[in-house]
Design a protein that fits this description.
The chain is an alpha/beta fold. The chain has a single domain, classed as Alpha-Beta Complex (2-enoyl-CoA Hydratase, Chain A, domain 1), CATH 3.90.226.
Length: about 220
């Protein structure tokens, strides 16, 4: 599921299920949190193998959820996204290709989001009768504002790299996202740590997360 390459200043984590567009399984969600929080480097660079960043939750996992297991899976994802948001390292998401559903939530949990011209983003949960329940409702609103967040979440529409940059979903469109991680890692690690704390996302808003998880579970409890 994950490939990890450790350098002196950057840990590179690759979502490595290209045949599944790097969709996240239960085990993959937990492994991702562990890989990010265990980094001793000041910067973590997160990207996907193949032609996608991340398709979100593995649909085989989602299809088997009921009310209780749906809420539990949402909470598992929230723990991972909060761990990434609260990690000691600066986490850079390099999106090269599609990010869908939980893949958008994963990018939103990172400190810095950059993409290539090939990137695209969609909160597709609503098209399946669901929604992003890994903290995505809150983080998307924080990143792009209520108007854009409502549009993306309620329509399920896809936006390209240029639109994502215009609304603030990513900060830059670049040819080589890894170069941005290296650029950040070239700075003083103590300064990075202090800045990250000051700019932090306050990733552990438990009440909002619990409402998300409970609603996600209710959707899975209803016959479809």
């Amino acid at each position: 599921m994950l490939s990890i390459t450790d350098g002196d200043a950057v840990r590179e984590i690759t979502l490595d299920r290209p045949d599944a567009r790097n969709a996240l399984t239960r085990q993959g969600v937990t492994a991702l949190a562990d890989a990010v929080t265990a980094a001793s480097q000041p910067v973590v660079y997160l990207h996907g193998a193949g032609t996608a960043f991340c398709a979100g939750s593995d649909l085989d996992v989602v299809a088997d959820l009921d009310g209780d297991t749906g809420a539990a899976f949402a909470r598992r994802g929230q723990r991972t996204m909060n761990a990434i948001a609260d990690a000691d390292a600066v986490v850079v998401a390099g999106v090269d290709g599609p990010a869908r559903g939980g893949g958008v939530e994963l990018a939103l949990a990172c400190d810095v989001r950059v993409c290539t011209p090939a990137a695209s983003f969609a909160e597709t949960g609503v098209t399946l009768g669901l929604f992003g329940a890994w903290g995505g409702t809150r983080r998307l609103r924080q990143a792009v504002g209520t108007t854009h967040a409502a549009d993306l979440s309620l329509s399920g529409r896809t936006v390209d790299a240029a639109d994502a940059r215009a609304m603030g979903l990513v900060s830059r469109i670049v040819e080589d996202p890894r170069a941005v991680a290296d650029e950040i890692a070239a700075n003083d690690p103590d300064a990075l740590r202090e800045l990250q704390a000051l700019l932090g996302q306050n990733g552990s808003q438990a009440a909002t997360d619990e409402r998300e998880a409970a609603a996600f579970g209710r959707l899975h409890a209803e016959p479809r």
